[in-house]
Write a structure and sequence with these properties.
This protein is an alpha+beta fold. The chain contains one helix and eleven strands, in the order H-E-E-E-E-E-E-E-E-E-E-E.
Length: 181
């Protein structure tokens, strides 16, 4: 007499145990990669803000020459973040600490406003309140150092010289693409 064996069925799909194992491994790998991803995001935000500020400094200089008027770059900080305004007139005639575009008084005219909120995790620190660009020569008064500071000690410094030119660097070379200060 022959042994009777039921026909074997081919298994299709995955078991619950296999699916849970794969989900657990993927979760562990994602948790390990998350801090590095946040550092990369913070680094890109800082680099983007630094590039925008360097471009805007050159923009102010060229606007002064094009308009044949002194044009100013003024800096402000508040608990909500920091901002800067490109404008004509005196330094105390414009303010950008409120949301939205800068508010200017008197004969001052706002040309451009850039706000960096605290949520951006990038702060602007300066050793001057404003820099005035001369229309005749494109020079700046006073000279200044503008620091964009991000989390984890990363920073980019823009140094404006009397000729209105910008030199950018990063303390200890912490930011890729910038020379060390």
């Amino acid at each position: 007499m022959k042994n009777f064996r039921p026909p074997t069925r081919l298994q299709r799909g995955v078991t619950l145990v296999e699916a849970c194992t794969v989900v657990a491994i993927v979760s562990i790998l994602a948790a390990a990669a998350a801090p590095n991803l946040q550092g990369l995001i913070d680094s890109r935000r800082l680099d983007g803000a630094a590039t925008l500020l360097a471009t805007d400094i050159q923009f102010v200089r060229s606007e002064a020459v094009a308009r044949n008027l002194p044009v100013r770059l003024s800096f402000y900080a508040s608990a909500e973040g920091s901002c800067y305004v490109v404008h004509t007139g005196n330094a105390d005639q414009c303010d950008c600490t409120a949301p939205g575009p800068a508010a200017c008084t008197g004969d001052a005219r706002q040309i451009k406003t850039v706000a960096l909120s605290a949520a951006d995790r990038v702060a602007l620190q300066t050793n001057v309140d404003s820099v005035l660009f001369d229309p005749l020569h494109g020079t700046s008064t006073p000279t200044g150092t503008l620091r964009l500071v991000g989390p984890q000690g990363r920073a980019v410094h823009h140094v404006i010289n009397v000729m209105g030119r910008v030199r950018s660097c990063s303390p200890l070379g912490a930011m890729p693409g910038y020379r060390a200060c």
